[in-house]
Write a structure and sequence with these properties.
With 385 residues, this protein is an alpha+beta fold. It folds into 2 domains: 3-239, no CATH class; 259-380, Hotdog Thioesterase (Thiol Ester Dehydrase, Chain A, Roll). The protein contains 10 helices and 5 strands; from the N terminus they run H-H-H-H-H-H-H-H-E-H-E-E-E-E-H. Strands 1-3-4-5-2 form a 5-stranded antiparallel β-sheet. A hairpin with a 2-residue loop joins strand 4 (338-347) and strand 5.
Length: 385
């Protein structure tokens, strides 16, 4: 996996050997090699943990009729297995041979043997899961046998990833030179190709938190970053509807007035030369969500409101790695002829902007007219009587 596509300043959580005289530390010139950066592999491992656990959860949901269709789960599973096979294949054919050629010390080779043996054991479990998946492809509920096989797979996968990060990563970091690691990265890119990248990157980003998304996309060249955001990600979501659910944005203050949240996809045209969403776009997002709110809670005011004042507080920039914004709208107060509407803009759980707009109700001649009692009640959630 191309490890130069992730933030190298991200904290590493590898468990270092506790003994100062281990075989790793006894190697001639075995100082930590700054050219070996495994941060992207750690992100990849975290994504495997996340999505195989999600697979088990969605399979259980089919038993109660509340899950996705069996066909959707099967497509999702096929994609996950393809990612896992590619990851293991590149380790077995490109990485482990380099490390084994560096030393025949059993203390060093031992963790590498464990990793490769676990790959083979996982292939056997995957074969059992594949047998159970044949029935679910036709929208049948998952069998207990299939769920048990997936639970076994998840447990084995988590154990394997833990072992690899704890025992094999330190060996790799000690033994590989910068040149060898760069050669390995080239081999990974060649095997993946653009076709593979068009699935791998959206898969990692889908359901990831904002910090991970920004770190991954922020290291891509700008043209590839834009292709990923505006081509690869939409295509991935259309084909693989099953995804990790993003956290819901925080709610407005607990007041009786109804609120409405609208999810808005950012556009390439919204970006400015600084590489983030331009401040003017915040006003456009507010307007889009506000129109939907008025249609829902102010039906008789539709087409009969003029904007008298707009205020925006920009709390946080919206980076180019963000492709969706949640805008929450709520009527704050209703005067004789005016309505004050609040807006909150969220990137995931981060409040990125707040806005206040004063609207004036007008008649057919665009002259101010009173807000009716029924309109006031709908906007504020009050009793019209």
């Amino acid at each position: 996996m191309p490890t130069d596509m992730i933030n190298r300043d991200a904290p590493a959580d590898v468990v270092s050997p506790q003994s100062t005289d281990s075989a790793v530390d006894r190697l001639p010139g075995a100082a930590p090699n700054s050219g070996v950066d495994l941060s992207f592999v750690r992100v990849l491992h975290a994504t495997f943990r996340r999505d195989f656990a999600l697979l088990a959860e969605k399979l259980r949901a089919t038993r109660t009729g509340n899950g996705p269709s069996g066909a959707a789960i099967a497509r999702w599973y096929d994609m996950l297995v393809e990612q896992l096979h590619h990851h293991h294949s590149i380790e077995d054919t490109e990485l482990l041979p380099i490390l084994r050629a560096k030393s025949d010390d059993p203390e060093l080779v031992g963790p590498l043997d464990v990793v490769q043996n676990q790959h083979q054991e996982m292939d056997e479990i995957l074969a059992r899961v594949a047998d159970g998946m044949r029935g679910i492809r036709f929208d049948a509920a998952a069998s207990e046998k299939l769920i048990a096989a997936v639970d076994e797979l998840v447990a084995h996968l988590n154990e394997h990833l833990d072992d690899e990060e704890r025992d094999a990563f330190p060996v790799l970091e000690k033994l590989m030179t910068t040149e060898e690691f760069e050669h390995f990265e080239v081999a990974v890119r060649k095997q993946m190709g653009m076709r593979g990248a068009a699935v791998t990157f959206p898969w990692i980003l889908d359901g990831a938190d904002a910090a991970t998304r920004q770190a991954v996309l922020g290291q891509l060249p700008l043209p590839l970053r834009l292709i990923c955001r505006f081509v690869w990600v939409p295509a991935f979501r259309r084909k693989y509807a099953l995804s990790a659910s993003a956290p819901s944005p925080p709610s407005l203050d607990d007041v009786p007035a109804p609120s409405l949240t609208t999810r808005i996809q950012t556009r390439f045209a919204d970006l400015d030369p600084l590489g983030h969403v331009n401040n003017v776009s915040y006003v456009v997002y507010m307007e889009t969500a506000r129109v939907r709110f008025i249609h829902e809670y102010g039906s008789t005011l539709r087409g009969n409101l003029l904007v008298a004042r707009t205020e925006v507080d920009h709390r946080h920039e919206i980076p180019s790695s963000t492709w969706e914004i949640d805008v929450k709208v709520q009527a704050q107060s209703v005067g004789r002829t005016s309505v004050v509407v609040r807006h909150e803009l969220y990137d995931g759980e981060t409040l990125v902007g707040e806005g206040r707009v004063v609207l004036v109700a007008v008649d057919d001649h665009h002259k101010p007219r009173p807000v009716t009692a029924q309109e006031r009640a709908l906007l504020l959630g009050e009793d019209a009587s």
